[in-house]
Amino acid sequence: MTERPLTAMIDPAVGPPDCAAYGRAGGWRGVRAALRDMTPDAVIDVVTRSTLRGRGGAGFGTGQKWSFVPKDPAATRRKYLIANADEMEPGTFKDRLLLEGNPLQLIEGMIVAGYAIQAGHGVIFLRGEYHVALDRLTRAIADARATGWLGADILGSGFGFDIHVHASGGRYICGEETALLTALEGKRAQPRSKPPFPQVGGLWGAPSVVNNVETLCNVPHIVANGADWFRALGLGPDGGTKLYGVSGRVRRPGTWELPMGTPLREIIERHAGGMRDGYALRALLPGGASTAFLDAGQVDVAMEYGAVEKAGSRLGTGLAILLDDRTCPIGMLHNLEHFFAQESCGWCTPCRDGLPWVERLLAAIEDGTGEAEDLDRLADHARLLGPMGRTFCAHAPGAMAPLASGLRLFRADFEAHIHQRGCPLRQAA
Amino acid sequence: MSTADAPLPPDLRSDVAAMAAAEHHARMAAIPALMAVQARLGWVSDAHLADVAGLLGLSPADLDGVATFFNLVFRRPVGRHVIMMCDSVSCWIMGRDALCARLCDRLGIRPGQTTADGAVTLLPIVCLGHCDHAPAMLVDRTLHGDLDEAGIDRIADALAADTPEGPPT
């Protein structure tokens, strides 16, 4: 039987466990192991050896990220451990499951991560629309404080840690870790230039680590069960399990915890029940709106960081959005680029002005007023904004990933729209 | 003098002051404070924005720059109920455009507008993280997923029955 450490305690029919029930079901083993038997560096070491990589989309090594934090004890220097719960990548609904289903698992992960980097201050940056998650996190934190899992001198270790929940005021850019810090400081959420990296100069200039919710939820299990156990959970080079998901015209859209590296075909056909009657798979975004399209013929790709990159895209959040054969790919691209244009923070010119231009070109093509040269303009944007480093942060490159791949995959659809003066699917309807 | 021009109620003032004092830096309380004002009064008027700015030690212009960046802070009056209908990709694939048009018809408004009786504001929103139940929308704090025409009609009927004296249950 496959192990599902992240979701083992999640039962929507019962609701999240309280501190006592969480402990009875195997919780708090990670905090006990870390605070009683391990040095902070030993925690970083086991997480590094586990090969845990960030589950928020970028896939940076978690242990490595922690290793850059100055080693001062928590009691002598203000440092922050921040959970990125700003789940706003279109097509992504995995952290919500963890936040609503078992908030104490995140809290335990934050205590252990805080101990590892010797940060006494925890913050959960929660998107403002997750009302159920806010209520459950608030209750779980109060429960954990009342039972001594949060506060001063946890388990008599001398290490103190508490958590503050920040309900965000909105905007996708807040998920970018430096924009998140700016937002937390009560400013317009513009990304910051690096260096300094947040681990050295983050929130109010203090060393800060920002980790995704799913990443942090893995931490107690790694510390309790070891790096070898974690690595063995994955099918390929990347360790652990992953919350995968599928949305679009499948029979059973949803999210499932499966071994890292599970083939996409198995996720779509076995877990999501395959395409609905009358629909065929055309293409897909493997890990959210900011990942490049894969063709239907690539569904055998293993859903792990390296394999998806080799296929020409990114694992991203690991939740796939499926384009079916009865939905217009140009319309889908227009929807995606509308999102990215709207959510640009406006700080740097190529992103602020380029993304709305892309959106207008796609709208014109879909409406039948597009010209052949518009395809060249779109390709220019993909070429100029796509590589990292042309803009202040990864927002515009993310926006260009579906566009650049879409221009290649859907060339015939683009040309049909231009020659037929509009969307063939809409004209046929 | 309308509520929008009246000073912040004293208890709300002290709540905001407490938030500012609890944070490492007072301006960290900017969004929580604005949201607290909005939770009580529905939106953030110019006068209330200036009151909050004063309590946080910020200029009103500085705080307004923050307030207008974040889409969940309302700097204009909204209806007694706010509908946020997802317009992102998974909901779009699952037919949200047609459902939005139907909801607009039923309410007699376009996205971004408030019904003449002040009952409902309809806003577009980015992905709500319920793509497994697309199309989805929030009505105030309640998420409605797997929307279809019948579901839209039920919600529109419930909102039509809303009056300032007796909101629907």
The proportion of residues forming helix of chain A, as a percent range, comes to 40-55%
Alpha-carbon Rg of chain B, integer: 18 Å
CATH homology group of the largest domain in chain B: Glutaredoxin
**Main sheet of chain A, how many strands, which sense, barrel?**
5 strands, mixed
Q: In percent terms, what proportion of residues of chain B is strand?
A: 5-15%
CATH class of the largest domain in chain A: Alpha Beta
Query: What gyration radius of chain A follows from the Cα positions, in whole Å?
Result: 22 Å
Helix count of chain B? 7
What does this structure look like?
The complex is a heterodimer of chains A (429) and B (169). With 429 residues, chain A is an alpha/beta fold. Chain A folds into three domains: 19-233, Rossmann fold (3-Layer(aba) Sandwich); 241-324, Ubiquitin-like (UB roll), CATH 3.10.20.600; 329-428, de novo design (two linked rop proteins). Chain A has 18 helices and nine strands. Chain A has helices at residues 19-24, 29-37, 40-50, 62-67, 95-101, 103-117, 131-146, 177-184, 213-225, 227-233, 264-271, 305-310, 329-343, 349-367, 372-385, 395-409, 411-419, 424-428; strands at 80-85, 121-126, 162-167, 208-212, 241-247, 254-259, 281-285, 294-295, 319-324. In chain A, the strands form two sheets. Chain A has a five-stranded mixed beta sheet with strand order 6-5-9-7-8, with helices on both faces. In chain A, helix 7 (131-146) links the parallel strand 2 and strand 3 (162-167). The model of chain A has no long low-confidence stretch (mean pLDDT 97). Chain B is an alpha+beta fold and 169 residues long. Chain B folds into two domains: 10-67, Arc Repressor Mutant, subunit A (Orthogonal Bundle); 81-160, Glutaredoxin (3-Layer(aba) Sandwich), CATH 3.40.30.10. In chain B, a hairpin with a 2-residue loop joins strand 3 (137-139) and strand 4 (142-144). In chain B, helix 6 (96-107) packs parallel to helix 7. The model of chain B has no long low-confidence stretch (mean pLDDT 94). At the A-B interface, strand 9 and helix 13 of A face helix 2 and helix 5 of B.
